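From the methods appendix. Each design record in this collection lists the tokenized structure first, followed by the designed amino acid sequence. Records were kept in a plain field format so they could be parsed without special tools. The example shown here is representative of the layout used throughout.

RECORD:
FOLD TOKENS (138 positions):
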């Protein structure tokens, strides 16, 4: 499955829900599916700057592909982290760097977050792209 196909799958899932309370509940449910975040990665270096809540994202490159790990102390944000990890883990740095992050706009996520949460979402995406850029240089 490509990044674009994963994004389309999320867009399709979000269209099932009619109102934003159901979509928020879906994000809460997604947060529960996030793999446990290793304690040794819960450092200031992995803390995303610009987020209202505390968010950690860490990446490992193995066999040419990046796997992301993340966590947050806020449940809806943790669901957003889960979404991002679902879309971008398991791909090469080049695939991540070429991808556009259109699903965020397509599902209407940015408009339904507070300005500080929306800025935090952009900071998470930026950090994931920075990992991909760093790993593409190796």
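DESIGN:
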């Amino acid at each position: 499955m490509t990044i674009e196909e994963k994004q389309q799958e999320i867009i399709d899932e979000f269209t099932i829900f009619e109102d934003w309370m159901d979509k928020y509940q879906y994000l809460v449910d997604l947060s529960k599916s996030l793999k446990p975040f290793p304690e040794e990665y819960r450092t200031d270096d992995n803390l995303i700057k610009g987020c209202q809540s505390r968010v950690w994202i860490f990446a490992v490159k193995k066999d040419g592909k990046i796997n992301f790990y993340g966590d947050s102390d806020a449940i809806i944000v943790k669901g957003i982290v889960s979404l991002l990890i679902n879309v971008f883990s398991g791909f090469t740095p080049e695939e991540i760097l070429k991808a556009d992050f259109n699903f965020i706009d397509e599902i209407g996520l940015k408009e339904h977050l507070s300005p500080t949460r929306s800025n935090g979402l952009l900071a998470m995406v930026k950090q994931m792209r920075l990992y991909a850029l760093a790993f593409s240089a190796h």
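APPENDIX NOTE: The mean pLDDT is 93.
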